[in-house]
Amino acid sequence: MDLHLKIWRQKDKQSEGKLVNYDLKGLNSHMSFLEMLDTLNEKLIVEGDEPVEFDHDCREGICGQCGMMINGIAHGPLKNTTTCQLHLRSFKDGETILIEPFRAEAFPVKKDLKVDRSAFDRIISSGGFVSVNTGQAPDATAIPVTHQTAEEAFDSAACIGCGACVATCKNGSAALFTSAKISHMALLPQGKEERNKRVLDMVSQMDTELFGHCSNTEACEVECPQGISVLNIARMNFEYNRALFFNKKGG
Amino acid sequence: MILDSKIPQGPLEQKWAYYKKKAKLVNPANRKKLDVIVVGTGLAGSSIAASLGEMGYNVKAFCFQDSPRRAHSVAAQGGVNAAKNYKNDGDSVYRMFVDTLKGGDFRAREANVYRMAECSLNLIDQAVAQGVPFGREYGGYLNNRSFGGVQVSRTFYARGQTGQQLLLGAYQALMRQVGKGSVQLFSRHEMLDLVTIDGKARGIIVRNLDTGDIERHAAHTVILATGGYGKIYYLSTLAMGCNGSAIWRAHKKGALMASPSWIQVHPTSLPQSGDYQSKLTLMSESLRNDGRIWVPAKQDENRAPNDIPENERDYYLERRYPAFGNLAPRDISSRAAKERIDAGFGIGPLKNAVYLDFSKAIKEQGKDKIKEKYGNLFEMYLKITGYDAYKEPMMISPSAHFSMGGLWVDYELMTTVPGLFALGEANFADHGANRLGANSLLQASVDGYFIAPYTIANYLADEIHTGKISPDAPEFEQAENAVKNQIQDLMNIKGTKTVDYFHKTLGKLLYDYCGLARNEDGLKYAIQEIRKLKQEFYKDVRVSGQGNTMNAELEKAGRVADYFEIGELMCYDALTRNESCGAHFREEYQTPDGEAMRNDAEYQFISAWAWTGENGEPELVKEPLTFEEIQPTVRSYK
Ligand SMILES: Cc1cc2nc3c(=O)[nH]c(=O)nc-3n(C[C@H](O)[C@H](O)[C@H](O)COP(=O)(O)OP(=O)(O)OC[C@H]3O[C@@H](n4cnc5c(N)ncnc54)[C@H](O)[C@@H]3O)c2cc1C
Ligand code: SF4
Ligand code: FES
To answer: Which of B212, B374, B410, B441 could form a disulfide with B6 if both were Cys (CB 3.0 to 4.6 A apart)?
Structure first.
């Protein structure tokens, strides 16, 4: 199949970027979207141009490193799919595809399609963990967790930290990402002890990082490759209010 | 050179306890004075960095991804082993030790393997305490399942995303330390050289991948947890960035490289469909608990799988290995698939695959049950191939997956360079010639959480009076210049072929001559071809862009440059081992019915290789293996 690509090229953080047109012919529809970009890059290199920089690693939909806006949609048209798991069979022969980096104030562009998502790491380091030291944990099965709870916690824990939720949100909010971690921890007995401090610290870090506020448009859930539910955001709000309440009482 | 494995004295079950009792300690007040570098933030790297940070050392952690959470460990699907015996099916540390040693074809050290099994108990506790949501029974207790090569259920899992959840646990522990300031994080930094001073590891040279800046980092000890080099085959189940550069550059600085040719080929990955393909996706081995593997009984079969009646199918694993059937170990299952494919029974458009069929399990257990167990894998299969595996069998094929070889380490996980440690897949220890499923996440984790914290402290206890290591030392300058020159050389070639072209060509050579099966002529041929390819690379590669900016092509070029040398060493290693064991199947050494023929009399040793210079032949150093607890037996899964 043939494709016309319009790709955002930006030399570095400081430079201005622009859309550049590229044509590719004779592609196989079984190719993944990133393999299509590899093909483009091979061609650019041989022709003496600079290849397009994009982030990726596992190419299995699990590391969360890939991600771009494809025709205005984070990770492209297929629901619950990362860019690396998107295949050309989702596009029409001869189609024009617009490819841009994830955009958000908290995710500055580094080069072409690569953005800086280290703000997510800082949110986790502000409280997204259980404070357990190495080597002294009690027997694992001594703390029963119901099947249902473990599965629910897993549903939240499955977030891959790709940032599609932020890129999709008109406010650039990180509420879905942050709430997924808060829910994961709040659901499990191990995470309960620190729940107040965790939610207050993580929400405050989210604000420091220049993420916008959640205004409940729910676009994030639609674009999330892991299908993380917006109910997590409701739980985060509940946990936050609860923490404020208990904190006032000094608990 | 004589290799000292430093195995502690005493009976097997007490060796580790004895070591810990005797190991030197570092006073908490002194830990602040000691600097530690950890390269890699997968399970091994994150867990050691978090552990040492928590203990009070100054830790710097490096990874090439944009966040430590993306290390390759995140991709592991099936599960992690622990001899907890929660199922009451007779599991024990001893049984796990025997399974692992036997699974590795008696090419690992008894003491190491026993210790891994012993520490497996703690790992599950640690992970659960961190909030890893492992699968649970309805009563609230932990669930587990069975993996290839064993007859008990000792594999703990978090759906089909066990590696992800374990890594997130370790990553969160790491980020907790980063928040506290005990660990400094350097993501998007690639280690390009090891710095040694007076023979000891004292630091590293890294490239900041965002800016292209070359930086020096000094420390009292350097820990490499940089994962495996299986991506050398280009098509593999590994992430695109996986590479062998860190260990290889350490090798050139004196660290011996052990068993490089033992690369596990996984039986259940998706088959290659075209030349454009960049990787082969793994379908978890756990699928083999319910899926049956078969090929048509007739060659060049053209009917759709569902149109082939039961009596015209060959369930070759069940036929050849009745005791283990579809759960036969990876090396055996992969080879059996290759044998059928080579004999003309392969299926799929390129006739390079076999079927993995769930129809029986779906009939017996219902689609919902199968969906609950493996739903995400079926979805992944659908996304990648466009086929619905609930309706027709999956197509699977063997592909390069895991490197059992790596830097040689002693019982303390220290390499032959004092002060340089190697953890996780980057070292050669514990798996022998073949890794049992779900043992790798385990090894990477226990290395980092439970073993290295003791052994590194033992080393650092003698470093307290060394004082700060200065990055201005001439050794740093030399190493930095070498790195800069290499980058400049690569940029200056300005040839006509892309880096990927060379990587793909090398990968194909290795698949053909140093893959599932090897023979003397093929290996000799491959060595010559790799040398030619390497020469061509240095004449004709084209690395676009600049050396001093973000440049993914340059990153790849450096890694491929090392792959030529690693590939050559793999072939050397395979050539000198005149036997078949585990992942190493030498065609000359097989039984009349096509099974591997091990030669314990002559090859019961670990091959460790020393670097002898750019055009020198690698030098073989043998570490003999002795077995006191169990006597090597022929591995039979029949
Ligand atoms: C698809 C797949 C599925 C698997 N499933 C299972 C399973 O179910 N059970 C199981 O037990 N095992 C499984 N494995 C194997 C297991 O995942 C790995 O062996 C294990 O995770 C390795 O962990 P590690 O910490 O040693 O290395 P990795 O997780 O690979 O981490 C390597 C780290 O090193 C860094 N790094 C590398 N080179 C450099 C450099 N030069 N400079 C800076 N940083 C560098 C990387 O950035 C990364 O942080 C699977 C493997 C694959 C490929
Ligand atoms: S919540 Fe979904 S979209 Fe957001 S980072 Fe996590 S996986 Fe990506
Ligand atoms: S490359 Fe890892 S999720 Fe896409």
So the answer is: B410
B391-434 pLDDT, tens digit per residue, is 999 999 999 999 999 999 999 999 999 999 999 999 999 999 99
pLDDT at A249 over 60: no
Contacts of B64 (CB under 8 A, 6+ apart): B187, B188, B189, B190, B209, B241, B555
Chain B residue with Cα closest to A187: B131
C-alpha of residue A107 to centroid of ligand 2, in Å? 14
Active site positions of B, annotated: 330
Q: Which residue from B minimizes the CA distance to A153?
A: B133
Ligand 3 binding pocket includes A81 (Cβ within 6 Å): no
- The pLDDT tens digits of the residues spanning A178-220 come to 999 999 999 999 999 999 999 999 999 999 999 999 999 999 9
Strand runs labelled E in B13-138: 35-39, 58-62, 80-81
Pocket test for ligand 3, best of A56, A113, A224 (most atoms within 8 A of CB): A56
pTM confidence score: 0.97
Angle at the Cα of B246 (from B535 to A61), degrees rounded to 5? 100
Which range, of A31-35, B553-557, B579-583, B589-593, averages the lowest pLDDT?
Answer: B589-593
- Helical packing angle, A231-248 and A175-187, nearest 10°: 70
Query: How many Cα atoms occupy the beta-carbon half-sphere of A6 within 13 Å?
Result: 10
d(CA B19, CA B7): 9
Nearest CA-CA partner of B250 in B207, B200, B209: B200
Residue B149 has pLDDT above 90, yes or no: no
% of chain B exceeding 70 in pLDDT = 99
pLDDT value at A251 more than 60 = no
**Is residue B373 predicted with pLDDT exceeding 90?**
no
Q: Is the Cβ pair A158, B161 closer than 8 Å?
A: yes
Measured between CB atoms, does A53 come within 8 Å of chain B? yes
What is the tens place of the pLDDT at every residue in A43-57?
999 999 999 999 999
Pairing of strands B35-39, B58-62: parallel
Which residues in chain A touch residue B84, judged by CB atoms under 8 angstroms apart? 140-141
- Residue B89 CA to ligand 1 centre (angstroms): 31
B141 vs A144, A151, A154: nearest CB: A144
What is chain A's Cα-based Rg?
Answer: 20
- Residue in chain A closest to B175 (alpha carbons) equals A125
Q: What is the ipTM of this complex?
A: 0.97
3-state secondary structure of B315: coil
> pLDDT by residue (tens digit) across B295-304?
999 999 999 9
For helices A147-157 and A175-187, the axis angle rounded to 10 degrees is 160
B389: nearest Cα among B298, B278, B268: B268
Measure Cα distances from B491 to A41, B239, B486, B547 in Å: 17, 25, 9, 7
The ligand 2 atom nearest the CA atom of A177: 1
Using CA atoms, how far apart are residues B48 and B444, in angstroms rounded to an integer? Answer: 10
Rounded distance between C-alpha atoms, residue B220 and residue B569, angstroms: 30
**Facing A58 at nearest CB: one of B75, B127, B383:** B75
